[in-house]
Amino acid sequence: MRTSNYAFLTLWASVLLFACGVLSAASGQTISGSSTNSAPPQQQQKPARPTVVLPEEQSARPVAGDTELYCAGFIQSEPVVIDLEIVGGEKEESSRVFSTGDYLFINAGAQQGMRVGQSFSIVRPRTPFDSKFTQKKGGLGVFVQELGQLRVTEVKDRVSIAQVTNACEMIFLGDLLRSVPRRVAPLTRPEVALPHFSDPNGKQQGRIVLARDGQEMLSRNQIVYIDLGSEDRIKSGDYLTVFRPMGTGNLLINVENEEIARNSSRGFESDLRQGGKYSIQAKRPKDSNDPGFFNRPLTTKEIKGRRPPLPRKVVGEIVVLNVQGRTATAIITQVAQEIHTGDYVELQ
Fold first, then answer.
1. pLDDT digit string (tens) for 189-202?
2. What phi and psi, each to the nearest 5 degrees, are found at residue 179?
């Protein structure tokens, strides 16, 4: 009996030991699996600071390109004396006008010192120029058109062959050649709103006497000529304000005639209903207490004639591209409204 009990106890002890081993192994696998597969806790990240991107400042750029610089023309105060002339063209049998790429013949060759590679500006002087807008006496000079450029490709004894590298206008036989002027376009400056009304600053004043291609109503980037030059201490790159006296610059010759019909004291009522004998668009009478004020309205001309001086009106801005003796060529950089030939300019 004791032997049997001892065997029974031994069996249960073995079972218990086995069971404990199994549980221990399972627990170890669980811990090991948890330790292997689980990711370490993430560290708390600070929120990124917002990045502020400022707009890049635009670099200053030229106010004019080569077309405006070398095709604008000018009013030359000195006499125009030029010997070099275009006397022929490769296609002259079929065309009287020439343009970019055409080959032309010049009345000078090796005997006159011509060399391959020389470049010339093609010009066309016109008649002496004067304007009713300027106060300068004795004329402003000769208006000279700039038509383009050409380059000498071959030199003969008394004639040279050249190719047109750039044509601004149609080129004719008889057009003249001069050395290409060295011109540098002024750089733009930060644009600010134009003052509508500004007082004179006491600096040089002149007028727009002409515009390129004979235009009379002008806007931004168009070429104008002013009656201020080197004799007035004007230089390339100078900015000038464009203005006109208040009440001027009308496009119609006689705008006040339209008041005549509106100011009439009769003809605005029916005979039957008599809605009112005067126009509701008429000016007030000179004396509203005078029963006989018929046909005596107050006119715009009378009001303007008795008012105090008004400020001038600023209409734009220009910058000088090149300067001659009595004049300068400029380009319009800003406009508040259309600019006219005859408008005034003042050095800023």
1. 888 888 889 899 99
2. -60, 150
Contact assessment for residue 315 and residue 106, using Cβ atoms and an 8 Å cutoff: no
Asked if 182 and 194 touch (Cβ cutoff 8 Å), the reply is: no
Written as one letter, the residue type at 280 is I
Do the strands 239-244 and 344-347 form a parallel or antiparallel pair, or are they unpaired?
antiparallel
Q: Which residue's structure tokens are 């206008």?
A: 169
- The answer to whether the predicted template modeling score (pTM) of the entire model surpasses 0.90 is no
Distance, in Å, from the CA atom of 180 to the CA atom of 224, rounded to the nearest integer, reads 21
pLDDT digits (tens, 9 = 90+) for 106-146: 999 999 999 999 999 999 999 899 899 999 998 899 999 99
Chain-centre distance for alpha carbon 59? 16
Quick check: 223 and 212 in contact, CB under 8 A?
yes
Terminal alpha carbon distance of the chain:
131
Under 8 Å between Cβ of 134 and 227: yes
Handedness of CA 51, 57, 59, 61 (dihedral sign): positive
User: Do residues 298 and 284 touch, judged by C-beta distance below 8 A?
Assistant: yes
Instruction: Check residue 96 and give left, alpha or beta (phi > 0: left; psi -120 to 50: alpha).
Output: alpha
User: What single letter denotes the amino acid at residue 80?
Assistant: V
